[in-house]
Amino acid sequence: xxxxxxxxxxxxxxxxxxxxGSGPLTRLWRxxxxxxxxxxxxxxxxxxxxxxxxxxxxxxxxxxxxxxxxAATRFGRNWFTARAWCVISRHRIQxxxxxxxxxxxxxxIPLVLWITPSRAGEKALILTRAxxxxxxxxxxxxxxxxxxxxxxxxxxxxxxxxxxxxxEIVRRDETPGVFAPGLERLYGGSWVPVTAASAxxxxxxxxxxxxx
Length: 212
Description:
- Helices cover 43% and strands 15% of the residues.
- By secondary structure, the protein is of the alpha+beta class.
- It folds into two domains: 24-72; 91-201, Threonyl-tRNA Synthetase, Chain A, domain 2.
- Strands 1-2-4-3-5 form a five-stranded antiparallel beta sheet.
- Helix 3 (57-72) crosses helix 4 (74-99).
């Protein structure tokens, strides 16, 4: 049964599971951060074993310092925390697309091209699939915010390409005067806010005709 709050998103029965899914290249792209972390961990492990085998204790201390110094500074901890939230939000956005109707009938979900820390939380650059629009993301903004453990979720549509949207995850008040980190400053101003009014469902002609 369609939800009274989001009738526009019930494009097919909610009990119908998505079929198929994304291809292997898309799955690798979604897991790129985890794969890079595993590769870095493997390199560090090999380096530590090599240093211990050669009994080069000075090199071992230098390697430990490279890891400990960033973790001991506030800037380093904030940097790692912000990137960790980016990874968490990316997975939660993808999971929300699967659990709602923001996926195609074949199980393909929108592609998170990039996600970066912002002054208020995170910003995700998303490429939608056929049959999915920015208005649908706006209709599911409360679900996205709850999934990402955030205050709110805001949706912006590109002025020229309607299949590209910007999803802002708001976790805290925006700090004035703070320079935009990551790629946030490169997103530019070509974005139009998608409001709840623009995401309303048009009249259901089938229901109107059946009532006549």
